[in-house]
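Sequence design from tokenized structure. All designs in this work follow the same two-part layout: the structure record, then the generated sequence. An example of the structure record is given first.
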């Protein structure tokens, strides 16, 4: 029984690796069972159970008469997505603050010259989107800027958490733009603090920005 369990775990790991490495991309159909048994080196029953395990994890989906398809490259993202579906905006902001304050601190200490140039360009793109008044552009530009700061932190665990919360963060950004706490904040001071390597100033700027939004959300739900 232990050996069978180990074989299934091995098969699950190899299938997962095919997905997370990008060999099987989201939206593509995975090989049929005979090819999978050849690829992994285990029997069909083991392959079947391994595939079913990833179906339950939300990475694969069986489609009657068509095959099995990759629908996600992250078990963490699926689990977190289910957990935070319908979350209160205040709760999302609290998590954003926890992640983004530390991201800003680390980015100020670790950013490269190329990332500084990219952040300044993204800041300008965000300002242009805000000036246009087009909500979708504003949301996308703001999300990309904040995600790039998280990337500049050069902490893969922090970045994975941030990216797997991206849908909730995007919805939160949209909510914030629809219910502004203040006039346009260009994020100029935040970006320049990161560019200058001033970790304290970077932390202060993002904490101030998100705390103001939290205060507004809290007032609306009293």
């Amino acid at each position: 029984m232990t050996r069978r369990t180990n074989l299934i775990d091995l098969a699950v790991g190899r299938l997962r690796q095919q997905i997370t490495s990008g060999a099987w991309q989201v939206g593509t159909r995975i090989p049929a069972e005979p090819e999978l048994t050849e690829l992994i080196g285990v029997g069909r029953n083991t392959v079947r159970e391994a595939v079913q395990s990833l179906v339950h994890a939300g990475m694969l989906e069986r489609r009657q008469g068509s095959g099995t398809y990759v629908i996600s490259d992250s078990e963490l993202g699926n689990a977190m997505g289910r957990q935070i579906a319908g979350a209160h905006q205040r709760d999302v902001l609290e998590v954003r603050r926890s992640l983004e304050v530390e991201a800003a601190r680390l980015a100020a200490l670790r950013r490269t010259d190329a990332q500084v140039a990219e952040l300044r360009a993204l800041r300008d793109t965000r300002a242009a989107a805000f000036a246009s008044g087009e909500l979708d552009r504003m949301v996308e530009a703001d999300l990309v800027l904040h995600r790039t700061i998280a990337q500049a932190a050069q902490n893969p665990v922090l970045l994975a958490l941030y990216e797997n919360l991206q849908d909730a963060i995007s919805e939160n950004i949209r909510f914030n733009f629809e219910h502004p706490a203040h006039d346009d904040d260009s994020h100029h001071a935040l970006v320049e603090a990161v560019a200058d390597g001033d970790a304290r100033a970077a932390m202060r700027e993002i904490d101030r920005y998100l705390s103001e939004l939290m205060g507004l959300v809290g007032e609306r739900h009293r």
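The radius of gyration is 21 Å. We note this feature because it recurs in several other targets discussed in the main text.
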